[in-house]
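Me: I keep going back and forth on a fold encoding question. No explanation is needed for now; the record alone will do.

Assistant:
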Amino acid sequence: MLGTSDMTPTATVETPNVTDPSLYLQGIPHDRFAQLRAIGGLAWHPYEDGGFWAVTRHAEARYVSRNPELFSSAIGHTNLWDLEADALEARRSLIDTDAPDHTRLRRLVAGAFTPKNIRWWEQVVREITIELLDEFVVQGGGDWVDMVAAPMPIQVILTMLGVPVEDSDYLVELSNYLVEGTGDAQSIPPDAFGNTTELRLLPFNSPASHALFEYGEGMRQQRRDEPQDDLVGHLVQAESEGERFSLSEYRNMFHLLVFAGNETTRTALSHGAMALAANPHEWQRVLDDPSMIESATEEILRWATPVMHMRRTATSDTELAGTEIAEGDKVVMWYASANRDEAVFEDPFRFDVGRADNEHFAFGGGGPHLCLGAFLARLEVTVLLEEMAKRSLCLEQTSEPVRARSNFVHGVLSVGMQPRSAR
């Protein structure tokens, strides 16, 4: 199979569709990804008026991630579809850049997300977690997403940003609409939230992005007038070799921090709860030996794979897995598949809280785009497990999950849970 600039590779019967958002309403279509992993080279996957090379195995996804000079984040887009030049520039955030722009933007904000600085927030994370778990237990359970998985990470990131906690419900609402934008339908009109911008110029093609931009700009003005020692204040004052964020860079960074800091951890906490409820013997292992919380955290992240794929674009003719890739071809890393790669993970479809050498791709495949919030996400999952263990709190699932109609975010909109004591 060969991709060239003037000839589109031909799909074969061996290439199952994995882009239809409706497939994910029943969970990740793992059987289809297993078929893709079994193909000797890379599979060419049709999409809209073109297509992409599907990178579904762990080794190749790692290679693409760690070779940004061959596989660009700035050319084209990091989602499946292409954008016109003006739309790409308007929507460009940290994840849609290559060095040197990526290096500069990341340096401006990375200091706030070092392990040392994230540990400073541990008590805040714990206080929020304790309050939410206590209420969950008092109420005898309910919708785990509404009661724990959604409010915990949004309250944490809003506290870090300096956003009033009373605005958390509004920002969760905006995040839900952004996830809709990764599917094939939206429930709000283009002019929702007073939006007058063409949707193609907004992240996720969603008017909710306009609302988030407006909210972030309001905070920016507040911090310019009254500086404070919080993350928004840091963004406003951040300097790197004499440079600061432009208005567009600030707006897109604020948007990214709210969405990624909320939605991805929320997804991990939702799938983690379902995995613990479905595998009570695994949670009992943690209760019997709390030193396993660290490995259990990593297994939850592997199991959840909050972001299921990310795209790159080939900067020159190259070869991967014996497949010739032409300059300009789209290359899509499917983390949802790589995290179940039988060549790397023993018994990959078993939830194992003691799994060793768990080199999952919950935060991407490494390289310069390793998730900025990885340490924070780990802290939040770890603290939740610690507080559940202190209470010997076990979970029982009481309803089927309502999943997001998205091939990008492995989202759960709701799932019923009730507490029970360890046997």
In short: The two ends are 56 Å apart (CA to CA).
